Every structure is written in C-alpha cells, then in structure tokens.
Amino acid sequence: MGKGPLPGEMHQSFGQEPCAVGVCAHLGKDDAVGAGHRPHHVAVAHGVDLNKMVAELFGKKTGLSGGRGGHMHLYDANVNFFSSGIIAEGMGPGAGMALARKMQGKPGIAVAFVGDGAANQGAFHEVLNMVGLWKLPFICVIEDNKYGVSVSKKDSTAIDRNSDRASSYALAGEYVGGNDPDLIFAAAGRAVERARRGEGGTILELETERLHGHFIGDSGAYRPEAERKAMKDPIPTYRQRLLAENAATPADVAALEAKVQTQVDEAMRFGRESAYPDASDALQRLYA
Amino acid sequence: MFVIGEDVAKLGGVFGTTVGMADEFGAARVIDTPISETGFIGIATGAAMAGMRPIVEIAFVDFIGVCFNQIYNFAAKTHYMSGGQFKVPLTFMIGYGGGYNDAAQHSQTLFATLAHVPGIRVVTPADAYDAKGLMHTCLRDDNVTVWMVHKRLWGLGWLGFPLPKALATVPEHDYTIPFGQSRIWREGTDVTIVGLGLTVHNALTAADQLAAEGISAEVLDLRSVVPLDRDGVFKSVAKTGRLVVADEDYLSFGVTSEVLAVIAERDPSVLKAPAVRVAYPDVPVPFSRPMEEFCLPNVERIVAAARTTMTRGKR
Ligand SMILES: Cc1ncc(C[n+]2csc(CCOP(=O)(O)OP(=O)(O)O)c2C)c(N)n1
Question: If you measure CA to CA, which chain A residue comes closest to B293?
C-alpha cells in the first residue's frame, strides 16, 4: 500500500485455490464468472490472461483495463470474467449474465464467487430468489473461510451452513468440507451439470482457509492462535496425495510446477517492465 | 449510546476509530455487525427513533451505495415526514478519499451525494481539534449527522502519515464546534482558497508556495458542508476578490459548485477574476498511480489555479 511497485490494497487468495480450481475446471469461455475483492485465484482458474492481469495489478498500460481497474476490479471480456470490491456484487450481474444466456438461447452458465460474509448482504438473498424463481443457470459459490475481515462467521451468521439457505429459494444446496480439491471438483460438476441441463441454480458452499490476514498488512491477530496453527496449505497437501496415490510421479509434479513457475515469472516480468499509462488517460473511456 | 458497524468491536475499526471501546463499554454497546449495511443502518435508525443515540461506522463512504435508501429515503426524512413526532439522532462516522491507489470503489469522497439530501448534516474536520469538536456537536444533535474524515488524516502509517498540520492539541474536556462555522487557517489579501478536509492541507502548502511568488492567499476551511458557512465564504471573497475552491469530490454538482453559487447569488461583482475550481474530474477514481495523481486536487493544481485568478482578470 505504501510506495512499493504494487499499488493499493491487496487481498490474497492463499489457501482458497481449491475452490477456484475445482469449480472453474468445469467451465469454458462461454461461461461467465464474477468474483469479489479476493479475485486472483478465480481469475487465474477461469483463464484470465495472466500477463495482462499482473500488469493491471501493477497499474500498467498493458493491464486488462489499462490500469483503470486495479486488483479488485479485474475484467476480461474474452473469458466473460469480472470482479468487484463491493461485497456480494458478483450476485446480481452474475445472475444477469445467466439470464442473458437464457434469453438469447446461448450456451453457457454463470457463476458468482462470494465469501461467507457476503451471504449476509441483501443482494445475495434478493438475487437468489430470482435465480430460483426464474430457474437461471447460475451457481453461487460461497468460499467459506469463516471470516469477514475480523468478524467470524459464528459472530455474523445466524445459521451454520449457508447452503441450507437454498431451500428458501428453490435451489439446490451443497456443502463441501475440508478444502479438498477432489471433493470440490465433484460437487461443482453436479452443480454445473444441473445448470447446463436447465434445472436451475445451486448454492455451493465450500469450506476453505484464509491462510493470511484479510489483506496484506493485517496480521490476523484477532483469530485464536490454535485456529491459525491448525490451518493447512492445500497445495502441498494435494501434491503429497497425488504422489501417495500414484496419480502422478515426482517428475510429473516437478515438470508441472516448473511450467507454472515460468508462466508466473513471465507474467511478473511483463507486469513490471510494462510502461505506466499516460496520466491523462484517466479521462478516457468514461462512456462507450 | 452505542456504536455499530463492521469490525468495530474486536478489531477496533478498520481505521482504528474504535480501538479500546469494546473493552471500555462492553460488547452490548460496541457491536460488530455482519456485512449487512442496509440492515444495520435501518436498525440503527429505528433504535434512534426509539430513544437511543447510535454511532454507525461505515469505513469507506463508497459502501453507502448498498444502503443509501435507508439513509436518504427514511432516516433523513423521518423527522419531517412525521411532522416532528420522531427524531433520528444518528451519527455516521465515515472515511473517504483517495491518494493511496485504492481505486474506484474505495477512494471516493461523495460529500455532495450526502449533502444533497435535505435533512442530513455533513461535517469534515481537517485536524484533530476540529475532529473532536465536530464529533461532539454531531452527537448532541437530534438529526442525522455525518462526520467524515479523509483517510489520509486518520493517522495511520499505511495511509500516508498524517500531515503535520492535522496534528493538534486536543483538550480532555468537552467542547463543541458549531455546524456551519468555517475556519480561516491563514489570512491573505489576494485570493481565497476554500478547502475542506485534506484539501485544506493542500491549500496551506499551496499558500506557502504562492507567498514565495508574492501572492497572498487566504485559506478557508469549510468544516461543515451542510450547513455551509455562506457568510464566511462571502466575507473572505469580498475581501480578496479572487476565489479558488479545492475539493476531492467530483467536479460537477458538488461543493465547489455550491461555493461558487454563494458568490454568484450574493454579489458576483466582488470578483476581480473568474473563480477557479480544483476538484476531481468527472471520472471514477483510476487505480494506476500516474492516472490517480493526475486527478487529485493536489498542491500543484491549486497553485496553478490561484495563479490563473491573478493573471486572468486584472481590473
Ligand atoms: C458492501 C461492502 N461492505 C463492506 C466492505 C468491506 N469489506 C471488504 S472485504 C470484507 C469482508 C468480506 O468477507 P467475506 O465475504 O467472507 O470474504 P473474505 O474476505 O473472507 O474472502 C469487508 C467487510 C465492502 N467491500 N463492501
């Protein structure tokens, strides 16, 4: 937030990768995805251009929005992706993209990723009612990391499981515990199929972990020590499982990780080395 | 009284506004809410109508977008619509402003959005002394009051350390600063620079630079947006004959327009040169550093505006 190369706030996704990967693995370019203030893992999983995304985070001219948007406001029309820093904002516009697909007879469904905190916003409930009423091809993914900034879910939410709210809106509801990529992938597959068949929407509630603070600079000191210590990084856990189950060899894993590292390094280089926009570009693009 | 909002209890406020209050006053009176602004602002309004005096924190003014109906269609209008039967002594504590690259949804100022609605009083202190005095006035008022502080004045390192002139000795004892009373931070004879909140500090730095060029600038801090100290503004401009208004809110239909209207309505002949507004251009706040800097009502733009008033209309 200070004077470093990355401007502004930064809500990191460490720990929440299984939610994004497990759901987006079922989606293609025709499917719309709306994310929130913590959007990067979802953007990456849905195929947002990595170089342009990183350039946007640095506020560069080559970024997704030429530096106008920033880290909470990522838009990539090529893959029908958007995000917003206002809590639960993925809901309305996301469901609207589902409605448009239905009206236009076009393929594709829409998915909104929200946090557990967002389930207490009015927009969440209003939109889900319409999704149920109009049988929209829409999935509300709740990434339940059990916190909204410093306030725990148990201190903010009247019920334990937000997926139980599905019955209020004639939707399917499914809860997946354990931050487990395989279980998430399976549950997301059911929800996506349901939406594609025109059978309506789903609340997919995924237990996950916010491994770091709310944003960079937040120590998370308000969380009990034991709770913080008990959190596990899902990526090494999954790597171990793949190896233990002989689903991949160490060489496969190493090759994959090296490939990804190269992509990330290239995106970082692209972002850092790209030029800043002209200052007066600020005045462009207000109207279409 | 009670304090209600997101992260106000355990965390002590996203900007540290309520640190220690939950320990001192207890969880029943310092209440962490779900992320349900429409709901808890409605609840605070009802509680105010039923005899409580709630303080509602909205960390970023941008978030009033989701709950504005509660504020402008109900809280602000209830005293009037009920023919005075119900009072709504509700104080909002709101952060605003940019300059730290938080982009379009977390950097707005929105004085005008709130000020436009009849029934709401809107104040914004530029230093710690005024912060307490204006807050005490809000808390004693029987109406909806909005106490807004620019985030760069909260005193948090990560938002840019406070400007030296924002620090002030704050007496322990109780004191109030009346609504609608502007403050002259610096007297001058050539041009009046009207500011509020952070732009007061930019205006003061600008005034130093202008002094080096032989231009004597008077810096007037509005402190209250509603009610606006129209007499104070007019008096200063009548004396200097030139006017620059600096505001971080959007240019059009805002505080800068209203200040110019004061002069236009009372007596435009006091102006020796056309007035100049230094405000946020009418675009959302861009994220990228050079673009955001370009839009901010910074010292350079204020100095340039003051120079323009000096050269434009010598009569
Ligand atoms: C309408 C609105 N209110 C408040 C905020 C401030 N805010 C940003 S993130 C956040 C917590 C969100 O919690 P959750 O939805 O659970 O997502 P998480 O941060 O845990 O990923 C809050 C309160 C906001 N961005 N928008």
Answer: A279
